[in-house]
Amino acid sequence: MKKIIKSFDHWKAWLYLLPAIVLLLIFTGWPIINTIRIAFLEGYDPMKEVGGETFRIGFQNFEKVVTYKRFLECLKTTMILCFTTVPLSTMLALLIAVCLNSIGPLKRFLQTIFFMPYVTNSIAIGMVFAAMFNIVGNASGITTIQNAGIVNNVLQFLTGNKDFYINWINAGSTYTHNIIVMIIYIVWHALPFKILILLGGLQSVNKQYYEAAKVDGTSRFRTFWRITVPLLSPMIAYVVITGFIGGFKEYSSIVGIFGDTMGPAGNAKALNTMVGYIYDALAGQAGRASAAALILFGIILVVTLINLWVSKKKVHY
Amino acid sequence: MKVVLKNLTKIFPSRNKKDHSEVVAVNNFDFEIPDGKLIGLLGPSGCGKSTTLYMISGLQKPTSGQIFFGDDDVTELSAEKRGIGLVFQNYALYPHMTVKQNIMFPLQNLRGNDKLSKEEILSRTEEAARLVQLDGLLERKPSELSGGQQQRVAIARALVKMPRVLLLDEPLSNLDARLRLQTREEIRRIQRETKITTVFVTHDQEEAMSISDEIVVMKLGVVQQIGAPQDVYDDPTNLFVAKFLGTPPINVFKGRIQGGKVMIGEAAVFDAPGIEDKDVFIGIRPEGFTLEENGPLELNVSGVDVMGRDISVISTHPESLNANVRSIISADQKNEIGSDTVRFSIKPHKIFVFDGETEERIYLQGDQG
Amino acid sequence: MAEKSRKLISEKNMRTETQKAKVGSVIAKIVTYLFLVIMAIIVIFPFYWMIISSLKTLDEYRLPVPTFWPKFFDWDNYAEAFQAAKLLTYFKNTVIVGLVSTILSLVVTVLSAFAFARLEFKGKNLLFGALLGTMMIPGELFTITNYATVNAFGWMKTYTVLIVPFLVSVFYIYLLRQNFLQIPNELYLAAKVDGTRDFKYLWKVMIPLSMPTLISITILKMMGAWNSYIWPRLVANDEAHALITYGLRNSFSDTSGMTDYPVQMAAVAVVSLPLFLVFVFLRKYIMKGVSRSGIKG
Fold first, then answer.
1. ipTM metric
2. Together in a domain, C120 and C217
3. Domains: count for chain C
4. CB contact under 8 A, A211 and B143
5. In B, which residues are within 8 Å of A214 by CB distance?
């Protein structure tokens, strides 16, 4: 009886899996093979391929990509954003999570507020950030400023100088200022997920460790570094790894602030990222886009492996 | 260092916001723990023994009452300032630190005038490890140790800072039966060697009896009796204490005092001169029975457990509150037990009479106290 | 040992020690709350700014000293936003794409998860492992070829192109399979013995028992449609098919500073509102999926 069920199961299972497998073969399996294939075809062009032309196999696409100044700029921007926002947001989230975990009243209320940015549209809220950093009424360098924007208003208030303002994202703004805005926005957007995971971790830590530490007269600072951080290390490793993976794929938050142009007016693509580069090249230069995608995959893989290796040494169980 | 508890009371507000009832975890606890003694706080779960321990540690604040260490009032002092060592039920060893790091952790916390040199920390760590016989295991992580070894690390960590008082919360409950015996001897030995005033909490009466200098029996936040284990066993002040101490447990019968006799059913089992007639509970320790052909108490035999030197006669009686009446007699007398019924007389000092309503002890002539 | 310990501690003046500790813990409490409240204000400020800006008149928005509460509630901004950004069209497109892709995705996911959780077949573990492996690959790698593929299929600027290519999510299959595995196998075997058909068993037992996960998947999928930007921009960037996020960004692509910000903020608020409602009412389902996935919004 059991055997009958089993052999019957066999083809039935494949029937159940059929829709998923067909779709996955077309839209996941084939792209993996094809992307690798065209990355190694020199001067690949889908139109010419349809026409029966063949292409030489080689590393030309990779060479072109890694020596291409635009791509290197994208790489630089991606790296800067990654290596600033991940540590910053992780530390800030850890601090907030530890504080949240230590309080009684208002805990749930504050927890809800800190989770709010998670369920937002990164493009829509990016536009809000853009509005906050924008200089109102400043059309392309012509000084018709009526209001320097809320962020500049706050800076004016803090410096006491009514005419003080920083050109954050408008025409003529510097790369550094653009990046600062991006970092603030990305950290803001990355906080809720990290707080959620770290707070969950903290809540599962046995309270007796803290009681034991208290009885032994451990200072708050030492308790944090010697007990909380090591006990949380698996969750910290998790948010850092996922943070890096997300960071290397940064794209839509920049669109949110700067729009499709990926840069301030008059300086398009100034803040383009690796993913942005891939999308730009995708229609016309599929070979280069594929090579760039493989490089991105390689970087993510390497960074993830390094992270795992480090956390194996540092994560304590 | 003696520890004095004065009118110690802990009231927990109800968790349910709607009803304002409170839970009195510890009610008016008065006790002086003599210097260098090992004290067992004993009682069923929810009796307030752990709360008492946590109040002595400073992790919980009493609702009212005072705690003194020696002559110092420490009631308002926070846990880290009290100089206590605390061993948790599940040990609370830091999983990411080695045995050595765990033990030296409290010493590394010392700051200012108390700060110790590295050499001193190391030597004291090793001394503590030697005391609990962990010398060879210093570089292991807690997860690589057996339960008994983890327990000893926890004790070493509590001892290393030379506490004024050592507190143990159910120290043996996570160990298997064999280790439990071994470890409790160990705790006794360490306590004797260090002479640190020690309080430990347990729900296991055998454990408390075997190693404590004094035991405190608690029930629902109220101290029932304090005394040396043997004294409490021999002279319980009420039915609860009598039932809680002793393995096998005491046999309890419903009965009455009538005309200066203790009656179970229609049998006058013992003399009670000068006590007015009333309903009572009668407790008889298993070892309090003497086989006697014409003894006053007749039981229906249902079986015999052989325990080597002794045998345990299992029988029933209509007035017994326990399903079975257990009586322990010498194995030599096995042949004298009838197949259906057996008759006993009762040894004095092994029979206790309790008031039928208050369950308080009624002292018969010849009783201690 | 006992003698030394006496020296260590009792010489200190306990009363001042206690007072110091009390003051210290009060200060720590105050600092903690202060930090949390400041951070909370920073976190929530963009939402607040979005809403009050969307209700200001353009003149008020441009005042040299900003107002933190609109002097006059200019609801017309919302009406203008709907016109300027054609939000209704995009909204309709998004709902169609979201609903159809959610329903189809649920069907495919349930069938696959059932096969992986309950049925025995050769190569099951290998196939499942391979599927999980694809989760590591960045989506951009697929997009390049998928762009060519949908082009070859002639699907450009249709609803199909927005629905079909990302219908199957390995992550959802994984999530649901884990849930199915928790349902005791005896229930399935008992149903078999009683002659219950697989579909009936799925419908009557597995699906009701997995409702929370299915709801999580539904919400995440709907939110995915609502928030998707990159793919729609590539393959369906015409007005008739554009989804809401692309439509929103594309309607206000000017960053010159002369933009009518109140209207733009009104449009942003309209797009954010459904997400906010989801957050308020269905937070627990999202958090459930989120804490296991690590995906970013």
1. 0.86
2. yes
3. 2
4. no
5. 59, 78-80
**pTM of this prediction?**
0.80
Q: Which residues of B touch C2 (CB under 8 A)?
A: 1, 36, 162, 164, 194-196
Which CATH number characterizes residue B204's domain? 3.40.50.300
Distance from CA of C39 to the nearest CA of B (A): 31
* Ordered per-residue pLDDT tens for chain C, 297 residues: 444 444 444 444 555 666 776 787 788 889 999 999 999 999 999 999 999 988 888 878 777 777 888 888 888 888 888 887 788 888 899 999 999 999 999 999 999 998 888 888 888 888 988 888 888 888 888 888 898 889 888 888 888 888 898 888 888 898 898 888 888 877 777 777 777 777 788 888 888 888 888 888 888 888 888 888 888 888 888 888 888 888 888 887 655 555 678 888 898 898 888 888 888 888 777 766 665 554 433
The verdict on B284 and B235 lying in the same domain is no
B14 and B68 together in one domain: yes
Check A13 against C120: CB less than 8 A apart.
Answer: yes
CB contact under 8 A, A23 and C168: yes
Average pLDDT over residues A291-314: 86
> Residue A231: is its pLDDT beyond 50?
yes
Chain B residues with CB under 8 Å of A311 CB are none
> Does B53 reside within a domain?
yes
Which string of DSSP letters, residue by residue, matches B254-283? EEEEETTEEEETTEEEEE-TT---EEEEEE
Indicate whether C195 and C232 sit together in one domain.
Answer: yes
Are both C104 and C150 inside the same structural domain? yes
Q: Do C168 and A24 touch (CB under 8 A)?
A: yes
Residue in chain B lying closest to C22 (CA) = B78
Instruction: Tell me whether residue C2 is exposed, middle or buried, using C-beta atoms within 10 angstroms of its C-beta: 0 to 12, 13 to 18, 19 or more.
Output: middle
Nearest CA in chain A to B90: A208
Residue B266 domain flag: yes
CA A93 to CA A235: how far, in whole Å? Answer: 12
Partner-chain contact B92 A208, CB within 8 Å: yes
Give CA separation, B44 vs B15, B89, B281, in Å: 22, 16, 21
Span A3-28, pLDDT tens digits: 455 566 677 888 888 999 999 999 99
Q: Is B155 inside a domain boundary?
A: yes
- Nearest CA to CA, how far is A55 from chain C (Å)? 17
Contacts of A215 (CB under 8 A, 6+ apart): B57, B58, B59, B79, B80, B84, B85, B86
Domain that holds residue C34: 2-61
Shortest CA distance to B217 belongs to which of B29, B22, B7, B1? B29
Most B CBs within 10 A among A209, A216, A316, hence the mutation to make, goes to A216
Strands in B14-155 per DSSP E: 22-33, 38-42, 64-69, 72-73, 84-87
Residue B272 distance to chain C (closest CA, Å): 50
Whether residue A103 and residue C250 make contact (CB cut-off 8 A), yes or no, is: no
3-state secondary structure of C182: coil
What residues of chain C lie within 8 A of the CB of A249, using their CB? 138-140
Backbone angles phi, psi at B320, to 5 degrees: -75, 135
| pLDDT tens, position by position, A27-48 | 999 999 999 998 898 888 777 7
Domain CATH code at residue C191:
1.10.3720.10
Residues in A touching C35 (Cβ below 8 Å) = 95-96, 99
- Residue ranges of E strands in A84-152: none
According to DSSP, the β-strands at B197-202 and B165-169 are parallel
Q: Which overall architecture, per CATH, does domain A70-134+169-314 show?
A: Orthogonal Bundle (1.10)
| CB-CB contact of B56 with B165 (8 Å) | yes
Q: Which of B59, B85, B92 sits opposite A209 (nearest CB)?
A: B92
Would residue B367 count as lying in a domain?
no
d(CA B124, CA B139): 16
Report the neighbours of B using a cutoff of 3 or more CB pairs below 8 angstroms.
A, C
- Is A211–B84 a contact, with Cβ atoms under 8 angstroms apart? no
Identify the domain containing residue B135 by its residue range.
3-240
